[in-house]
């Protein structure tokens, strides 16, 4: 069984809202305006980007939803706004944007990577090995100065100095 990709849900919900609006327009006297046409074009582009270039889709669809929040485009035939007379935000788009970001954590991590703990430990270990080879010939007093909390040395250097001091005290 294939993995179900949840990050497509906001796009599918947006398409469903557009299709419902299209159905309402077919059965009533309402005619789509420029906001709905912009939404149709945006969803076609977003759908193709989802399957072709996932990174570009992520940015594009986030921009589309943000534009929808401020009323530049609308998937539905009617616009809902919460706010003041001229300025308001569309709560449907706010919900879609929250859902989009919640389900797209992998994409967000690709754009804004955190320091990988495993990689950092490897780098720290190499650095600590380097310090260990440099500090082996130091006296106990020099090692205590390095290991001091207020010293200007890095945390790795302080830790290595403490380890070497413990080894020297045990001998």
What's this, in brief?
The protein is mostly helical and 171 residues long. The chain has helices spanning 9-27, 34-52, 54-69, 91-103, 105-111, 117-135, 140-147, 155-170, and strands at 82-83, 88-89. Helix 1 packs antiparallel against helix 4 and helix 7 runs antiparallel to helix 8 (155-170).
> Largest sheet at a glance?
2 strands, antiparallel
Number of domains: 2
Helical segment tally? 8
Distance between the termini: 60 Å
Strand order in the largest sheet: 1-2
Residues in helices, as a percent range: 55-70%
Q: Which structural class do the helices and strands define?
A: mainly alpha
**Low-pLDDT residue spans:** 119-123
Taking all residues together, what is the mean pLDDT? 82
Please outline the helices and strands:
Layout: H1 9-27, H2 34-52, H3 54-69, E1 82-83, E2 88-89, H4 91-103, H5 105-111, H6 117-135, H7 140-147, H8 155-170
Antiparallel strand pairs: 1-2
């Amino acid at each position: 069984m294939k993995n179900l990709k949840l990050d497509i849900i906001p796009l599918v919900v947006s398409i469903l809202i557009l299709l419902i609006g299209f159905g309402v327009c077919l059965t009533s006297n309402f005619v789509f305006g420029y906001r709905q046409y912009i939404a149709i074009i945006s969803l076609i582009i977003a759908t193709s980007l989802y399957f072709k270039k996932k990174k570009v889709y992520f940015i594009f669809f986030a921009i589309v939803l943000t534009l929808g929040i401020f009323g530049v485009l609308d998937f539905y035939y009617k616009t809902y706004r919460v706010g003041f007379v001229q300025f308001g935000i569309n709560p449907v788009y706010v919900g879609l944007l929250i859902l989009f970001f919640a389900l797209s954590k992998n994409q967000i991590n690709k754009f804004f990577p955190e320091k990988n703990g495993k990689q950092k430990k490897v780098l720290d270990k190499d650095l600590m090995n380097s310090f260990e080879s440099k500090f082996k010939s130091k006296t106990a007093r020099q090692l205590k100065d390095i290991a001091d909390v207020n010293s200007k040395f890095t945390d790795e250097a302080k830790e290595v100095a403490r380890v070497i001091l413990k080894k020297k005290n045990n001998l």
